[in-house]
Each structure stands twice: as C-alpha cells, then as structure tokens.
Amino acid sequence: MSALGSSSTLSPRLPRSIRRIPRSLYSASATLLPSIEEPTAATEKPIPNNVVHAHSPPIRRLISAFDPERSMSTQERVVEFLLTYQRRPREALKYFNWAQNQGGPMGVEPLCILLHILVRSGWLSSARELLKRSILGDSSSRPSSIVDCLIETSKRCDFDPLSYCYLLSCYAHVHRVEEAVEAFSRMVESSIFPDVKARNDVLSAMLRSNSFSRAREFYREMRAKGMDFDCSTCDIMMHVCLKEGKPEDAELYFREMVDGGVEPDVQAYATVIQSACKKPDSKRACELFSEMKGFGLVPSEFIYTLLIGACAKQRSMGEAVRLKEEMVSSGLPLNLVAATSLMKGYCAQGDINTALDLLATVLEQGIVPNNVTYSVLIEGCYRYGNVEKAYELYCQMKQLGMLPSVFIVNSVIRCFLKNNQWKEAFDLFEEAVGSGVPNVFTYNILMHWLCHAGRLKEACNLYARMEDAGVKPNVVSCNNLLFGHCEQGDMDSAANLYSQMTERGIKPNVVTFGTLMDGYVKKKDFDRVYDMLNIMRGLGIACNEYTFNTVINGFCKAGRTSEANDMLPKFMEEGFVPNCMTYNSIISGFIREGAMSSAISTYQQMLKKGISPNVITYTNFIDGYCKSNCTDVALKLMNEVRRKGLQLDIAAYNAIIVGFCKDNNMADALKLFDELLEAGLKPNAAVFNSLISGYIDLSNMKAAFELHKKMLEEGIPCDTAIYTTLIDGSLKAGNVTIALELYSEMLAKGHFPDDVAFTALIHGLCENGHLEDAYKILHEMDRMDVRPNVLIYNTLINRYFREGNLQEAFRLHDEMLDRGLMPDDKTYDILVSQKFEGDDAIAGT
Q: What PANTHER family does the annotation carry (predicted)?
C-alpha cells in the first residue's frame, strides 16, 4: 500500500451515540497536562469582553444539571454545551476539562468540536496541548475516525481548516508516523489538503525515525498530487539523502525545487553544499557556493566550515586557505572545526610545522583545542617521525586539563616504538593504565612490538595483564603471540594458543593460518602445513593471495622450491592468480639453491603469462650472480635494467656492493656507492653494513668506524645488524672494551640483540678469554627472552672444557637438552675429543 493510500482498517461512520473515547484518552500524567495558557497578543485571537467566567450562573446551572438519570447522555450534554459556547473558548475548555474529570464517557465528537473552537478562536497553544494529551493518552481511536469526525463536526460549528493541520502535526510531533500517514490519506480522500508546514512535520518525523524510503515515497506522492513545497521540504529531503548515505541524490531534490520556481534560502544551500562535501566533491561544493553568493545570499559560518573541511580533505589546501581568509575578512571568526580541518590537511601533506603554527594561532585567539585537534596533530607527528613534538602535544593537553583519548595515547605509544624508545612507550602505557584508558588496540600495539622484537615472554605477560584488566583479547592479540611463538620455533606453544582461541570463541582468520603455516614451514613440518590448509578450508575461510604466497614463499625458503613450483598449478585450480610476488619467490628460491637455469626458466614462464618483472625480480638475479662469484655478469644485468628504463632500488645496488666486498674489492664497492648517490637514492643501514663488513674482513677497523661515523652524521640510525658487525669486528681485533661499550650503547638506543648478535658476542668473549663475561651474556639472553642456539652452547662447552671445568661443560650440555635443543655433530666432537684429552691427562700420558 502506498504511503498515502487508503487504510484497510478505517473505522466505518458510526452514530454519535456509540463513538466513544475511553477515559484514559484524557488521563495523561501531570507532566503532560500544563495549565491552560492565556492568549497573548502575538499568538492568540482576542476574546470577546462578554466572556462568562467558569462559575457564572449559566455554567453552574449546566453543571448542577449533570444528572446521570437524565435521558440525555453525558457526551450529548458536553456537545450541547460546547456548541452553545463555541465563541467562548475559555469556558468551553474549562467545561470540557471538568466533564473529563468527572469520569463520564467521552467520545471523539466533543474533542473535535473543542479543537475547532480553539483553533478558530486563535487559542493555538491550547489546541496543541489538547491534541497532544489526547493522542498520547489513547491509541484506540483510529486517525481516520478522528478525521471523519472533524469533517462532520465542522458542519455544525464555526471552524478553521487549520484544525486538520494541527491534528496531522500532532501525530508527527509524538512520533506516530503511521497514524500521521493514515490521517493524511483520509484527509486527501475527502479533498482536504493540509498546508505545507503540516506535511513537512510528517516528513521530519520520518527523517527522525530513519524511515528514509517512506519519506521518499511520501514526497513522491505529494508531488504526484500537485501539492506545493517550500525550502523546508527540500531541506528535509536532502537530509534524508545524507542520513541514508546517498549524498549524490540530495542535489536532485535541490534542482527540482529550483526548477519548480522556489528560491532556495541559505539553509537549503547549506544542506546541498554539505551533500557535495559528503561525496566528497569539493569542486562541486565550491560551485554551489559561488552560485549562492551570486543570488546575494550571505554564507554562514557553517557553510565556510564545510567547504574548508572538504577542500582540506581532498588536498586542495590553496582553496581551503583562501576560504578561511574570506571567512575571517567577512567578519566571521575562525572556529575550531575549520582550524582542525586545515591542520589535518597540512599534516596529510607532511607540512607539520604549518599545522603546529596554526595551533599556536588558535591558542592565541583563546580557542581551546579538543581531543580531535590533538589527535590530528599527534597522528601527523607519528607519520613523519616527530616523536618529541608528539609527546610535547600530549603533555600540553594534560596541562590544559584535558584527558587524552585512547586514540591519542595509542598514537604517542606508536611514536615512541617507531623511534625505538621502548622505555618511554611502556612508561606512558603504565600511566594510561592508572587512568583506565588502554583498550585492546593499546595492548595489541605493544604486543606486536614485543613479539617482533623477540621479547615473547613480556608479550605473554602483557596478554595476561590485559585479561586481568577486563580487556577482552581479539584475534589480532592472538595472532601477535602466534607470530612470537612461530618466530622462536616453539610450534607446540603456538598450537596450544590456537586451541585456546577456539575455546574462547575467538575466530581465527586468514592471518592466523598464514602465521601458523609460515611457522611450520620454518620447522620443515610440511605435513602440518597441509593440515592447516585443510582445516582452513573446512572452516570456510578462503585462502587468499597472502595465504598462497606465504606457503609458496615458505617452501622456497626451506629449500623445497621445486615442490613449491609444482604446487602452483594446483593452487591456480582453486582460483589463485599468481602475481609478480609469487614468481619472485620461486625465482629467489631456485637462485638460493644454485639452480640458475631453473630460475631463468621460471622467469620465461612469467613473461609468457604476461606478468611483467619488477625491480625485485632483477635484484634476485643480480644477487644470485654475485653469490655465484659472477659480479661482472651482475653488472651487465644492472646496465641492461637501466636501459629498459627501470629505476634500480637500494637492494640491487647493495647486492653488487656485497659481491665486491666479498672479493675484497672495496674500491669498486665505494665507486658503486657513489653511483647510488648520483642516482638520487639514499643509502640505508644495510648498505653501510655491507661496506663496514668489507673493511672488517680486511681488518681495517679504523675505516669501518669512520664509515659508521659518516652514517650517523647523515642521519641514518645504527640498527642491530650494524652493532653486531662492529661488535664482532672489535672482538676479532681483540678489543673487548670497545665491543662491550657498543653492546651497552645498543641497549641504550633501544635495539635488542638477536641470537646472531649474542652468538658473535659470546664467541668473541670466549676467544678473548673472557669466559665469565660470556656466561653472564647467556643469562642476559634469558632475561631478554632470546633463546640460545646450539652454536652458543658449543662455544661455551668448548671453552669450559679448555679451562678444565668439565662439570660445568656437561651441565651446559644437559641444559641445552632441557631447552629442547638437539646437539649437532660439533657438540659431540667437542665432548668426545675433550673427554679423551681428559682421560689422557689423568693417565699421565
């Protein structure tokens, strides 16, 4: 049924004697029954001077005649009185209220007559209150019945057509949308057309109740019946489009209004401009803005704010700034919303300084920034690495008495972690915990960092704290810990965590399975990889590009590239479309295995499928030739790539630099380094590490440290790999003091040693006779939750044997077994050879 169609439940026309309204219709609570307002010159029509007071003789006589035994019914007596006093609204209303309070049966008819009296007499506020009390008090009387009664009673008393409008508006104001539509339908059937204001009230009620499709239908049928509309109608319909998430439809209503000859006002332009900004289409919004000014309309502060925000969002900062200047020059103040939009635009462009200058201007003007403003600026500082300013803004917020939101806390923590200021990050976290601010995202940020830094034990403790704090972990929380366990090769703990996820109702996702499969690949447990694939499919989780590439790349890294290559057609049958990354993994795997011919064959297959190689593809081949001691071939390939117009990346240059350094050809390595700079590329820590390693291999520690100094001067931070290289070189040169100083500096700068760094440190200390210091480093590994490897134990066991401390050597062997580390051939060589040496010594030979 259409919005304006006839209701199938319309009440038939009943005799007046049996049309009744229950007493509850007039029994609203005291809060809904305000005192009768006296008319004012502005709102009510004047009352004749000969008005009879409530207790004048005529009313007293009628009240005294209220006898239940009389043949006339209560409703008939009330109707008789109202018709008699229809030009005396005060007496009519007071008598109606008196009769209602007596509890006698009242019907729709007295209500309709009184409504006519009040509206015709100009007692509009009283009419509204009467309708509101009546409609809220009872819902048994159908709106169509009340409309029928209004029509019938209008024949017997003076009335104003506004009575119908007031009834319709009342239904709308008390959120009775369906009843308003029913009343409207009956009015239209009776050729009664409520005014545009009443119809707008119904549309507004539909908007408030999110009845968007109903509002569109109501509007279409009004237009089909030729009813007029105004700016308010158009504004309501445009807001329907905005709330419905269809801003592109708003301008259609606006153009229909203009084409219909209705001149839009400032509010209509504000809404249509808002719709253009929501698309977002700042260009169209500015065109409407110009059109508006062309009609002589003065833009409001709201309109300027909308336009500035839209232009800033779409990176039209020049236009956004121009609008801001125009707004200020027209006498309108720069408000916080507009200023925040500009700051966000500046931050998106990387112009943090201008955004901060604008913040200073805002503060000077006495405008107090809010959480959103600081969120924008702190997030900008995070993206562009300005950690100190991010924390300064955080402190400024607190000085202003503002409680930073969890989003801001998370941004500052991410800033610290990005800059390896882990201590500051965790101090801020503890401060936030005291205020109850952290949410699951806060914990996830920290756990992600801890797991990727190899500090799994601390990540697990944080996970437990999160649960104790009542913060429910999600799949991201579990995926972080899974990554940590898999990185440490502890697949038993990873499998247990996966089981706990399902028990706790945390649904694993594609990342969960990808992480587990990657872990099993590294452990060379390929049966479990296939099991994970089958479980994943059984749960209805579709393998995506990430999953397939993870499996293929994992098999390739595990030295099973041929098997990965055979998997590819099977995966393609499941809908996988291999990309450049897929073929790069296979090519890289074959190159690592020394199968250059297979790598070239894969490259040719890639070309046949129409997949263009990228710089990583060529870098793999360059790296392969360099590792095969074919640096000259790598250089030729590099020149060929250049001729094709491809821009080589840092990794390609570094591959050849490493090749030259391995050949002890530092002259050509430095020459290529200069070419890298000329190509406009900025060398990273990996390139410097290659050159430093080259000098160390030549036992030129002086040149190595000079290069390290140059790197720092150029603003390239020293990472764990470079610290490890310098520590290893210093120990090989016998300089234990410098090595330990570098180790302390590494920790102070927030870089945590991995097993490679600890291996170099322990081995170097043992070789230099510092066994006690080496053993302390082993305990340091436990504290930092870094799992020792077999090589570390072999080094310590060997050294203790040489020192004659057989008991400690065998204890370390047992400890290694307890940690789940399997001794290798070197371990047994040490144990056997040293045992024989010990027996010989005992025998005195």
A: PENTACOTRIPEPTIDE-REPEAT REGION OF PRORP DOMAIN-CONTAINING PROTEIN, RESPIRATORY COMPLEX I CHAPERONE (CIA84), PUTATIVE (AFU_ORTHOLOGUE AFUA_2G06020)-RELATED
> Per-residue pLDDT tens for 92-127?
888 888 877 776 556 788 888 888 888 888 888 888
pLDDT recorded at residue 137: 67
User: What would the two tokens of residue 127 be?
Assistant: 């009419």
Instruction: Pick 843 or 512 by higher pLDDT.
Output: 512
Three-state DSSP state, 106: strand
Residue 21 DSSP symbol? B
**Are the C-beta atoms of 673 and 691 separated by less than 8 Å?**
yes
Conformational region of residue 436, where left means phi above 0, alpha means psi within -120 to 50, and beta covers everything else: left
Average pLDDT score, the chain: 83
Give the confidence band of 842 by pLDDT, cuts at 50, 70, 90: very low
Among candidate residues 401, 400, 457, 471, the one with its CA nearest the CA of residue 429 = 471
What number of CA atoms fall less than 13 Å from residue 494's CA on the CB side?
A: 25
CA geometry: angle 688, 694, 699, nearest 5 deg: 125
The model's pTM = 0.66
- Report CA 559 to chain centroid distance, whole Å: 40
For the segment 69-89, the average pLDDT, to the nearest whole number, is 73
pLDDT tens column, 609-623: 999 898 899 999 998
Which tokens belong to 463?
Answer: 């996970």
Q: Provide φ and ψ at 698, rounded to 5°.
A: -90, 5
C-alpha closest to that of 326 among 342, 343, 304: 304
CB 730 within 8 Å of CB 705 = no
Give the 3-state secondary structure of residue 280.
Answer: coil
- Report which residue type is found at 153: T
Q: What is the 3-state secondary structure (H, E, C) of 467-507?
A: HHCCCCCCHHHHHHHHHHHHHCCCHHHHHHHHHHHHHCCCC
How many C-beta atoms surround the C-beta of residue 52 within 10 A?
Answer: 13
- Whether residue 143 is preceded by a cis peptide bond, meaning omega within 30 degrees of 0, is no
* Alpha-helical regions (H) of 279-405: 282-294, 301-313, 317-329, 336-348, 352-364, 371-383, 387-399
Q: What is the pLDDT of residue 250?
A: 87
| Neighbouring C-beta atoms of residue 506, cutoff 10 Å | 19
What residues does 106 pair with on adjacent strands? 21
Positive or negative torsion for Cα 124, 129, 132, 137: negative
Q: pLDDT by residue (tens digit) across 816-836?
A: 888 888 888 888 788 777 655
Question: What integer is the mean pLDDT of 259-283?
Answer: 88
C-alpha neighbours within 13 Å on the C-beta side of residue 670: 10
What residue spans of 121-246 are helical by DSSP H?
124-137, 143-153, 162-173, 177-189, 196-208, 212-224, 231-244
User: Residues near 225 by Cβ (< 8 Å), separated by ≥ 6?
Assistant: 4, 188, 193
